[in-house]
Specification:
- This protein has helices at about 1-20, 25-40, 45-65.
- By secondary structure, the chain is mostly helical.
- The chain is elongated and about 50 Å long.
- The termini are far apart.
Length: about 70
Amino acid sequence: MKKYIKLLNEYDSLKDEIMSIDDRFHDGMYYDIMGFMSETDDGLIDELESQVKACRSLLKGLKALKYTFC
């Protein structure tokens, strides 16, 4: 359960960082986090871990994105 909570906290932090760059992901991420929060066991830890990993990659990509002609 400790790992689940740690991942959930990281997911929430990543959401905030991503929102500061691009808020179009807000609804999906917000409702997904709420769903993970409503689970009382860590049976979804693999799914949560995948989401956190994907958000890390998304944030890294958004930070690296530099428009030239925009």
